[in-house]
Amino acid sequence: MDSKTISINKHSWDEASPRFYGRNPLPEYGPLAPTEDELQLLGNIGGKKVLDIGCGSGHSLQYMKNNHASELWGLDLSHSQLQAAGQLLIKDEARLFEAPMEENPGIPRDYFDIVYSIYALGWTTDLDQTLANIHSYLKAGGIFVFSWEHPFYNRVQQAGDSLILNQSYHQEGAYAHEAWSQPAIMQQFKVSTYLNTLINNGFMIEQVIEEVRLSEEDVEKHSNRWYSFDKASHVPTTLIVKARKE
Ligand SMILES: C[S@@+](CC[C@H](N)C(=O)[O-])C[C@H]1O[C@@H](n2cnc3c(N)ncnc32)[C@H](O)[C@@H]1O
What we know:
Elements: H1 3-16, H2 36-39, E1 49-53, H3 59-66, E2 71-76, H4 79-88, E3 94-98, E4 112-118, H5 127-137, E5 138-149, E6 156-159, E7 162-165, E8 173-176, E9 185-188, H6 191-200, E10 203-209, H7 216-222, H8 229-234, E11 238-245
Parallel strand pairs: 1-2, 1-4, 2-3, 4-5
Antiparallel strand pairs: 5-11, 6-7, 8-9, 10-11
The structure holds S-adenosylmethionine (SAM).
Residues 6, 9, 13, 20, 25, 54-57, 59-60, 76-78, 81, 100-102, 118-120, 123-124 line the site of S-adenosylmethionine.
């Protein structure tokens, strides 16, 4: 775990928290990506114990609550994000931990039916340890579903009508995201690294999704300086993976 990076990101997320309040939570998996309503990756949530990794403002946990999950648990690095989540969800109905996903702050093992993470996993400074933790939290047969910006998306830049491949897809490691004004350090992993690290930690991969959705409504809702119809027509915006603990 890279404590210096985590401390920088904690500070940035505490500052940025209001900007991200309720942005693209479940049933959305990400900007211009298919939703849970369409994909049905989580199955029947009723009566299930669920854990949200990087739960942010708690809106995906609220979705789980509305779908009658029996227990709501969440973990996030940022104090401000968790304050927002604590206000959104009625006090005591969710167990929220302020901690990096690279560590287990006291989450039970072999306990959860569903662990999920919406646009948070690419912040981890230790993918292997994070996925080992997630594997340990799940019951045998439990599922892990995550979404993150597709690793090819930030390699390509739009320049007028052209798309330019301006960084190597092969290059992994820490980077400062262009769309962030404060210092915020994300981690670049290839699709194969995500999949192989899941497999090496005992997961069985069930589904991998790279599709985009470009209806007028999607484009109107999600377009901004980072996500555009033109770019998303050529490059996937979001990587979504469903895996199971065997
Ligand atoms: C885009 S937000 C997540 C949104 C949320 N999952 C939802 O569905 O509404 C990303 C979150 O990752 C958290 N984060 C960043 N680095 C982290 C780390 N190392 N461990 C845990 N959480 C982290 C941030 O504080 C932020 O709340």
